[in-house]
Amino acid sequence: MMPAQQIVEEVSVQWIKEQLSHFADLEERVLTAPSGKAGLLYIKSITDPQIINRSIIAPFYEMDNPAVYAEYLAAYPGSEEAKTGKHVLELMLSGYACVHTEGKLCFFEALKAETRSVSENMTESVTQGPSDALTENLAVNLNLIRRRYQSAELKMESILIGNISRTKVAILYDDSRVNHQVLDELRERLGTLRIDLLQASGELEKYISGDKMRIFPKTIVTERPDRVVFNLAEGKIAVMLDTTGFAILLPVIFNDFFVAMDDKIQLPFVGRFLKLLRITGVAMTLWLPALYVAFTSYNPEIVRVQIALLIAGSRATVPYPSFVEVLIMLLMMEFLTEASLRLPRAIGPTATTVGGLILGQAATAAGLVGNIMIILVSAVAISNFMIPLNMMSFSIRVLKYLFIIAAAVLGLVGVVVCLVGFTMYLCSQRSFGQPYFRMFFLDSLGTSGRQKGGGR
Q: Pfam families attached here (predicted)?
């Protein structure tokens, strides 16, 4: 059998059939007309029969001269000339039809893209503004982006990743605003990536972020085209995959994860107030359970006497330390959150709401947890859901347990030490070489000097 690297002149239809001999969906057709013949070879499962009939078969019978038909195929948008046998197989497996006429092989793009239409985004709620979401079709996603970003400076580069999946990855950036050092680093990381399968943006995000032991996300994964466009205008880079409806934005700073796109629509003062609420919610998620453990078990003298007596009264029947009480209730809340994500949408919200009410009421009535603990867990759950982007929300959900463990070991001192370590860790992080803990509130609300000045 001929090696796949042979020059295309030595490749015939018979050679392609031998290479794809075990493909039950391989289809061969012979087109016959008074003017001559043409051979057609394609894989039925990934090609569109309407494209083949309209753009390949019908023109053959309409043209009297086979040479003219060959020129038509070569000039038609979507046709491609293969250089090697390996390239021939890649085209066939990516949805191209092989047409053999006038002693030449022409490969015609006839891919059948089975994707959903543009729909409302599901992961990032919208109160005002556009609600359309990216799809699994890269061409559609590029259309959504370019309709909003009509600038000649918007550049796109393409690369194939995955030895088996051969996933097409597009890199979008504004050439006049992007940091070219970051762009070069991204190209290097993508160019050295050696994997077999790539099916989701989350997979690629893990591969290109660099630090495998990181706690916080170094990129933003979003399905909103308006967020992609806004970040492109801020000088960031967007990485988009075919077959997935999410884009990766980089580099990012810690503050970017607390910006909702609706903030741009609000009055400036209102937008800053809403962001302050989200950051306060993060602080409550991290500190409330830990402070409860510290004040209850180690440092009750810090709070007012009335509050200390109230906590002691609510825990009068609780048979174990506050550390165990907090862990039990937080883990139950984690179970309910995961169940709400996995259950069918028709019953998920109802089942988890009823389950949460029953468990909370029964645990309090049985004396296993105190009433204040129920209030605290509810406040923690609500404040965690205030973060606009799920990636940061998941990180904060995990990080709060580190604060609880520190409070259980050292009390309030442990909480302070954990907070200092948390701040130092953030200050040491980099996203593609850029400082991660830059807290520029104005930049993320679209009032930076770059946007005011219209570029560099």
A: GerA
